[in-house]
Amino acid sequence: MRGLAVKNGKTSFVNMDLEFEGPRAFIIWDSVTLGSYLLKARLEIDPKLLLKDTGREWDYLYRGQLVLPRPEHN
Predict the structure, then answer these.
(1) In this model, does residue 74 exceed pLDDT 60?
(2) How confident is the model at residue 2 (pLDDT cuts 50, 70, 90)?
(3) Would 33 be classed as within a structural domain?
């Protein structure tokens, strides 16, 4: 999935992995391997705001707003 990010007043595009679970959609914010387990930090997004966009290196464009957690706030 590709989205537009704003940081310190500057915009840039970010690419993230996307997973579906039934009618729900999630972006993968981060993942880490712990032994034989894969732990994922997932954020649920509104699947109605995904726009199918094939022919490039991403499959979807997200038209909604993502509020991603900042490490200093955790």
Answers:
(1) no
(2) confident
(3) yes
